[in-house]
Amino acid sequence: MLSGVKVVEICGIGPGPFCAMHLADLGANVIAVERSVQEPAGPGYVMNRGKRSVVADLKTAEGRNLVLKLIEGADALIEGMRPGVMERLGLGPDVLQARNPRLVYGRMTGWGQDGPLAHAAGHDNNYISLSGALYYTGTEGEVPISPITAIGDIGGGALYLAIGVLAGIMNARETGKGTVVDAAIVDGSAHLLSLLLATKRKGLIVGPRGKNVHDGSHFFSTYRCKDDEYITLGSLEPQFYALLLQKLELDPAAFPQWDRERWPEMREQFAGIFAGRTRADWCALLDGTDVCFGPVLSPEEAATHPHMKARGVYFERDGRLEAMPAPRFDGTAMPAGAVPVRGQHTEQIVNALSRGDAAKVWAAE
């Protein structure tokens, strides 16, 4: 789908590489510029799948010149340094866009390019705690638990950068002018709350953590089973809740759905019920029904679930589990590209650059 889109990635950690991998998954031609360090034994870094890898020391004139030559034929560059680092290397947006005015310069950070915290260190959980995205995770009396990388690095970071870069490329193709995309995890993870904030007007969020439908009710919750595994319920709509009570053989009069005062009591009763059978038992009873039910599975377990197997969501390569590219187009998933070892394409690309052969620079092996 993104055939013909050319991206240079200045490799960092976390959301930047994921963003570039996602673009490669969707067909973009991505050249990853990695640090020249020894590649450990074994397969390459899975976040580099579908990319070609070159090594360069950006603190040297040779390394900087490599990037300058690469971006001349690129649609976009992605970097995940702290604000000001690329400028100090002589590779900031002004320099690169002077060489290629159509270049979209994608910047991935936690705090953003400006603001009081812009230059501070941080990680996924710090960003989503500040943005408000962590607040409603967990239940009353429990500490909020960060869904590691999902809300911040990936949801609020990498995916927003990908959307921003693609929007910038569309604009550049229309206007001939590139742009600088400031993708901050605090911005993206706050924007992810838009649906949650909208539900306040519907009365589903009426108070602090533990007092709302998703974190305080008995019908939208996670429960421990007899075998110490877990299941989830999301029986929000009245018809789904009625079916849940029917499946559990409970009297609807004894379990009024919207009696908020009784939610803690009913939640405790539900906890006792679900603790009486194993996760497999509950799957046999509730899986595939309109109760809105799901077992809590590890990624390895998820890969073997009949639904996930039928869709081919996971696959194994070199002894490790990977997820297939998403989304699908016309019912078909994009193929997962090969994972290069660090620097695998350095010679090929450097030689093509030295000859001024732009077609070979961006030609796949």
From TrEMBL:
GO MF annotation: an example: transferase activity
Domain of life of the organism encoding this protein: Bacteria
Keywords: Plasmid, Transferase
Protein name: CoA transferase
Organism for this UniProt entry: Cupriavidus oxalaticus
